[in-house]
Amino acid sequence: xxxxxxxxxxxxxxxxxxxxxxxxxxxxxxxxxxxxxxxxxxxxxxxxxxxxxxxxxxxxxxxxxxxxxxxxxxxxxxxxxxxxxxxxxxxxxxxxxxxxxxxxxxxxxxxxxxxxxxxxxxxxxxxxxxxxxxxxxxxxxxxxxxxxxxxxxxxxxxxxxxxxxxxxxxxxxxxxxxxxxxxxxxxxxxxxxxxxxxxxxxxxxxxxxxxxxxxxxxxxxxxxxxxxxxxxxxxxxxxxxxxxxxxxxxxxxxxxxxxxxx
Length: 262
Prior knowledge:
Blueprint: E1 2-6, E2 11-12, E3 28-33, E4 42-50, E5 54-64, E6 69-74, E7 81-86, E8 89-101, E9 104-115, E10 127-138, E11 141-152, H1 163-176, E12 182-194, E13 199-208, E14 213-223, E15 228-239, E16 253-260
Parallel strand pairs: 3-7
Antiparallel strand pairs: 1-4, 2-4, 4-5, 5-8, 6-7, 8-9, 9-10, 10-11, 11-12, 12-13, 13-14, 14-15, 15-16
């Protein structure tokens, strides 16, 4: 057995995630407040244990949400809407474990994430997240199934907020998947190797329930050589606009990709 600090105390600047921008709306002033990574570095640490049949780790992170949270107020002088996109400070702790049980590989992860609220800004609710899954390979077939669970501890209903903040709260619920206090989900991946592992077919399914939304992604990968491969696939999103995957329905697509490794 071995014990180690993995990527001990990495320090980095802030890098945000890019989201599609909506066209400008008359009477709405949009401002984005980004933290300066040079002044407020992000810090994370992970303690890892590797064993003969069981691996586990614990980790902690202090930094900023890569995804923007929304907050809104009315401008008293103009009557217009002041829409703020900001990146709240995040404190997260988590643990994961993986074990082999005969032909099965079992995994579990759990984390708690809290968001700091400053200047009265609307922020995502604090939450716990857990994943439990298993996978098994039989000959050239691999099946992986996971159950997802999210618990929001201090959720504020949009209807309880002033009208401008109701709109922001709805957007935060979409981006951070916080429509309900408890949210269950499921992911499954089936991969099959063909033609002496030259051809691989894969089907990925991810869904959250109440409200129900998800992603179905079929993939076909053909290896032309050890260095080159061709990939054909598609992404099909489903769900209502008021759901986690629903707003991505405009991104439904089929694609082809060629990879060459030098």
